[in-house]
Batch of 2 targets.
Target 1
Amino acid sequence: MEKFEVFTAVAAPFVHANVDTDRIIRIERCARVARKDMGLWAFEAERLMPDGTQNPDFILNRDPFKSTGILIASENFGCGSSREMAVWAIAGMGIRCVIAPSFGEIFFGNCFQNGLLPIQLPHEDITAIQTQLLNRAATNDHQQISLTVNLIQQTIVTPWRHDYSFHVDPLRRISLLEGLDPIGLTLKSLPAIEAFEAQSKGRRPWIWTHPTLPA
Amino acid sequence: MTARTLFEKVWSQHVVENLALDVDLLFIDRHLMHDLGGGDAIFQIRQRGLKVRQPNLTFATPDHVVETAPGRTGGIAPWADDTIALLRKQTHESGIHLFDLGQNSQGIIHVIGPEQGISLPGTTIVCGDSHTCTHGAMGAIAFGIGTTEVQHVLATQTLQQKKPKTMRVEFAGKTPPGVAAKDMILALIGHIGTAGGTGYAIEYCGTAIEALDMESRLTLCNLSIECGAKVGMIAPDQITIDWLKDRPFSPKGDNWQSAIQYWSTLISDSGAVFDKSVVIDCSKLSPYITWGTSPEQVISVTQTIPLLEEAGSSVQKQAWQDALDYMGLQAGQQIIGTPIQRVFIGSCTNSRLNDLRLAAAVIQGRQVANHVTAWVVPGSMQVKHQAESEGLDQIFKTAGFEWREPGCSLCVGANGELIAPGERCVSTSNRNFTGRQGPGARTHLASPEMAAAAALAGKIVDHRNF
């Protein structure tokens, strides 16, 4: 997994409540698009025109937000389906950090599995950042709308000199900072898993014993 | 000993190792898999040189991409046959039990888990699908996971999980006639919102829950994720035990005796402390139906669509306006009388035998409106055969419904079965998201009785007066 330490990029306001993962990536794409191409289909219904060209009205298709690497989203971002392709799609657009007041819980967990950092900030802070970005968009100056997300210090530095601090669960933070592989980590606990299984077979045999099935 | 919740009792039984303050390595008793990504996940871990650690605790079925037309043998979507073939190959080579197409046991994974007796009280159950919360109705901690976590479970039979907070939702009183489990849970979602349960494991309790049959409990728990909660569970009782007895995978003999003895301890102790508590008065409920593009945008069928001024924030107001534009509806209008073109009775929410019985009772002797295309997609082969033995298929077919084969179908359209742009569908499924049933499709979530009545009337009606 790609490490996440300090990341500076253009940030875009995405002011929609309850953005669900169906909206982020359609189910047909999950079924047949390769992981590396998933970004092409992110937010398909609003980002692309019926003929497949870019919709000029979609915020991430417009200057200065075309090169967005940080999404400033609204409440309950990523709710709904567990499809991890929603994270792949967003990451495929070059976005490595989503900041929102709240997230769909499965999406939130999936982000950490893919080197994408989801950050929770209070609603008022999100609104303030979104407003600043919208106001500064007219300058078309990327520096005016670029944020620096520092996972080491857990801070967000803005060009308007109002900085924010955030908190990430310690285990998840270390995994991202070091780019750790969760399966590899857990396999180090193999003796504990084996001991649990042996004890479980004695304590709850019905979990383990399946009856003979008819053919 | 301190009083503990049902959730805490089950969770603590599965902790392999404590990893951090509130993070545990949790043992997984039941890993359920389906065709959309299941075969690839097994392939991925094998590519890494790992193998499926406990194939005996892993179960799979094709449901998402399979066609549901009568007589189907695979899928119509261009990706379907490869996807199913990959699941077959990978499960076979790894020794995982597959409930395959053509077998008497295939169906939607969240229907067949409980039906086969795989989903048991006191277990941890995961699946790469957010509606895994359905199995919580059996008294299990059951939740949906992403692809990477699916691989993690395959390789280690565990997950690193943050322990959620607990929420007690009491459905008090007695529901009036014509009010279903679907209405109860839609009422809760309308009340606490689509993020109201985020970060919590919900325990549903109260007299109205105790009165629900097993299938209705599965419907209710199925929508836990629509209020944000990964986990929604109900303490097992005699209804649970009677329902599980003699299922193909249910414990047998001495194991059955020790299991039911253990299950009887799976209740929240009196005095157990929950982090949050909500009470819904069921005596005041009526049939519910969604008007927008989020399950929280829901009203009683007798109500009018809310006015934009009633929105709690500017973001919510915008979301309501966007939803109304997409749905082709006006703020303040009656939902009753809205013309519809499609009806879908199916999905892991409402495709079980009792759902079909209730819908058939509304339909019997009447005809689907001329301009409506109406489908029944039974949740499993078992459900389909039982319904046919009761003659329910004939009632549906005579009325003008299509009687189809089991699968996820129009709930999510992963098999290429879609609602056309602009068409309005009353659906017994779980999500009314923009484009969920197809690009431009307009979805109204409701109970099977509401869907059946809408099919006959050709418009949204209150099934109690129809």
Note: Chain A touches chain B through 59 residues (CB under 8 Å).
Target 2
Amino acid sequence: MRKQERRALICLLLAMVLLTGVVVFGARFVKEGGKWASFYGNSQIYTEGVINRGTVCDRNDEVLLECTSDGPYYSDDWEVRRATVHAVGDPHGNIASGAINIFKSQLIGYDILNGTYDTSAQGKRIKLTIDARANVTAYEMLGDRTGLVGVYNWKTGEILCMVSTPTFDPADGIPEDDGNGYFFNNFLDGTITPGSTFKLVTAAAVIDNLPGRDSFLFDCDGVNEYNGVDFTDVESHGEVDFRGALAQSCNGAFGELTREVGASAMQEYTEKAGLTEPVDVNGVMSARGSFTFPADDNVTLSWAGIGQADDLVNPCAMRVYMGAIANDGEAVQPTLIKSATFLRELTGGKTLGRYLEKDTARELRSMMKNNVVENYGEYNYEGLDIYAKSGTAETGSYYPDAWFVGFTDDENAPYAFVVWVKEGGYGSEVAGPIAREVIRTLEQNNS
Amino acid sequence: MENILYRILNIAQTYPELAREVTTVLRWVFVVLAAYILLLSIFSLLTTRCTPEIWGYFLVENGGNYPITHWENVIGRSRSADINIPVRTISGNHAILARRDDTKWILKSLSETSDTVVNGYKLIPGRRYLINTGDEIVAGGVHCTVAPASIEESRNNEKMRRLDKEPVAPWMILLAITLFQMLTIVQLIISMGEDLTPGAVISIVLLCVVMWTYVMVFKAMGRKGFEMEMIAFFMTTINLAVTSSWNPGNTVKEFVSMMLGLSLMIFMCFYMRDLERTRRLKPVLIGLSVIVLILNLLLGTIKYGAANWITIGGFSFQPSEIVKLAFICVGAGTLEELYQKNSTIMYAAFSLFCLGCLAIMGDFGTALIFFTTYLVVSFLRSGDLSRMILTGVGAGLMGLMVLRFKPYIASRFDVWGHVWEFADDQGYQQTRTMSFGAGGGLLGLGAGNGSLKYVGASSTDLVFGFVMEEWGFIIAVLLVLCIITLTIFAVMSIMAGRSTFFTICACGAATIFLVQTILNVFGAVDLFPLTGVTFPFVSTGGTSMLTSWAMLAYFKTADMRRASSLAVEKEEHNA
């Protein structure tokens, strides 16, 4: 019998297999339960393939989308619908980064204890960080043009405005064919030639690598030939120093500064600025920017240093970099959801680490102020403590893309922003006012 | 009573919001009750270990006084021998000393090289001899004898056993299960309203009545251990609730099958009290199994992809389920049989026949259960690990061949591990199981509120997900723990087992339960390809329910705790 005693342990081995499997499944259940439960096959929460419960509202409790068993109901205001559709998403999931997609499990009211059990069967209310009114302002300012406006609080990481055009009215029916890029969220998914806004990265490299930058002088003749190639500026800037070169956005001067800094430092500072990595927004990864800084080709290197050549930046990453400059070099992760769960509340304002040395950030900040004072005109931004850099990116079209990036530093309005208008024309003149109006709306609505 | 039920229905329909609140609370109550019922039973089963009884002493010259704690003992030099005499002239496995039902002792020499002499008579190896206590045995030149347990020692033994922890009294558990059943009826009325048939309600009430009757009758007969039955009654309650939610019209059938299973179990328990009688049944069982399987091959109808059903007079059943019962008994053997050469050949041939039939039917899930059980049982018999591995590998290669020729099965292997990519074709059932199951959370949506029931085979192959959705993850996992507990109990029972026959039966039954649960749960949640196997007691299906209950008899025969099991005659304990 003693032999059989020992051999019987093989049954325990089988029992171990069962136990292990259940533990493995249990771990998956804990980790993926929300995802499983919000799977479209779950007819408890989907009616005809459309989620049937949950409400999405903006930071001021304005309802943007209400999912019911009779179908989804959007805001009554068509402008709100068009301005927020990329943030809210569509019930069919065409906009992958829409809240209805990413926060599905919160929307249906999933939690591990109750699953999808809900006495009211109305789901949960998801409060987004965006401000519907500011989105409408941005949408109105962009008009029919392709473009984007992104604003976030660089202290807390809350995204206040995220508008991408072209857009569509989800209440009018979802476009079947996306040939026009309706579903594409330029802000998260786009990679765009940054133009002169990229000089803020080159400037950071200069500050850290060229101790003699204060004595830097460049004589801009408007053509600025180098190696047989013209680094043309709109006008001749005459003799500019480092600060002046940024304020005037002098291509000639920044071409030379880029060459002095060198390819490897440019690469290093682009990476440090977080522009080569995707940004994680509540689990949705933004597109990844790409840059090439050839060490053996000074002409291309110079173009790359002024935001042309192969440079492609993701707007969301650019905005995080703006936030880092504002925040003494430390970047804060953006988020779209406002305290839906306790955990989110805790992780809000999560730091992404140090992008710049404190002194570097301070110097850049002062130069960005100088840009406004010297070039864009403080009177254009009355009442705003604004720091900015414009960009006019050549993409081969007749009109260049207009950029305006930067941040404000008011106690109630610590906003980092990115505005881009495709083929909009001259940067600060086109994109600047959009940023101004959106921030003003935000200040009115949220102070 | 009908009045009460209609009043509940009335209230639920008039005040739907109140009804929802009731469900909200009930979900917690169910989990707490289930945890109480099952953890108490599990704890009692695993902690009330019994002191092995001493049936006599084996005395060896120059010291050596071995208490005999099993009915079947190997005497030998080998360290694994029950009576281990480390003398070089004695063979590793020298002889078997076995106690008969009538308290007489049998001695059988196994050694060809070393003699065994009783009262001057040299035993012929392989032949059984009746010996008396006090007879002089000379094994390999060593003088020994069997001494009866003295009355005083018996008393001491008795005292020791009184110190053993008693199995938990069944009353509180019975009350908890009863409450659980009544609340289940309330919950089903709330969730299903008029869709719930009177038959379904009556079945649950009758289950409760049967449960109380069973315990009271056997309690009156002096039995104390009811944990295994409590576990089975609880699992059956979940079964009836699942069936009611899925198709209320089928609940009565489940109940009737459970009654048949319970009756068969009681019959088997009484029958197996007599080891010799049970052993003699083996050829009959083999014959019956062969006939039933051949009938299945001839008359079988295809249901759910495998031709493993027979329909006679409107009743369909799965013969292979019933053959499982015989399969265990055929595989079991007394210690004596295990040392008989070629004793395994009959079993191997029978297994091969069963597997062949199942392969022809295309029931590969059940074939896998039979095969694993065969491996475990033959390992228990022979202890030959290498042969077991070899057989396993050989079968694995055969399995690969099957995959080549049965594209239907191969496609299940294709999606294994990434069912979400095939969510609307081959992965349909698994993704729904996980999605609806996760929707149940830890507490479940409430019986009758699930949606997995609209997916094919939800109450059988996917029942784990069904329970997760309606009863919650906690109760689903508790059900798995029940099966694991029965296994641990079966293994523990060997320590005090009478005969290897019973312990092999218990381990074989445990293996069948385990493999079924593994295939059912793992298949439903994509840890293993979906094979379409039932979860013991819980899956809907008459034959499965009947077999699960009858299988319980094998666990009961191994329960040697004092006055616990109806499968062990009271006198067989040293009274």
Note: Chain B touches chain A through 69 residues (CB under 8 Å).
